[in-house]
Amino acid sequence: MKHGIKKRKLSRCTEHRLSTLKNLSISLINHEQIVTTLPKAKELRPYVEKFITIAKNKNTLHGRRLLLSRLHNSKLAVDKLLNVLASRYQDRKGGYSRIIKFSTRKGDCASMAVIELVDRDIAARGKVYSKNKEGGKVVTQS
Q1: For a tag site, which of 76, 82, 104, 141 has the least CB within 10 Å?
Q2: What cystine pairs are annotated?
Q3: Which CATH number goes with the domain that contains 75?
Q4: Domain region containing 89
């Protein structure tokens, strides 16, 4: 019986699956829209929404350290979460991302999906949030 099985395994061992989800979440936070397979997108959605909730509710040193430990020490993604996304979603109580079904992949006919952040900045498409040498935050072309 399959009682209590809630997560998808994605044909990966635990370490590889968690690493895949962390890397996908960093990409989604940086670019605010990514194209991936539908099962990965469905598994990624609650994972990223928990990060946004932590950034929104715990905008302290403890929250920063929690996010750094869960996002492969990606300081740029954590800075964007705490400075940009937390203020953007301050009035929203949940549902920070949406999944739009896409076509199938040509090679293996896998169902593809676009996962994006709601109310994303469309003008920032293809740009990455980064720091300059003086410590200020800038948006650069990727």
Answers
A1: 141
A2: none
A3: 3.90.1030.10
A4: 16-141
- Residues contacting residue 13 through CB under 8 Å, at least 6 positions apart: none
CA separation, residue 46 to residues 2, 26, 104, 124, 132 (Å) = 21, 14, 23, 24, 32
Residue 34's contacts (CB-CB under 8 Å, 6 or more residues apart) are: 24, 27, 28, 114, 115, 116
CB 131 within 8 A of CB 77: no
- In a domain? residue 131: yes
pTM of the full structure:
0.85
pLDDT in tens, the chain (142 residues): 878 888 889 899 999 999 999 999 999 999 999 999 999 999 999 999 999 999 999 989 999 999 999 999 989 999 999 999 999 999 999 999 999 998 999 999 999 999 999 988 777 666 666 666 666 665 555 5
In angstroms, rounded to a whole number, what is the distance separating the alpha carbons of residues 79 and 29?
A: 10
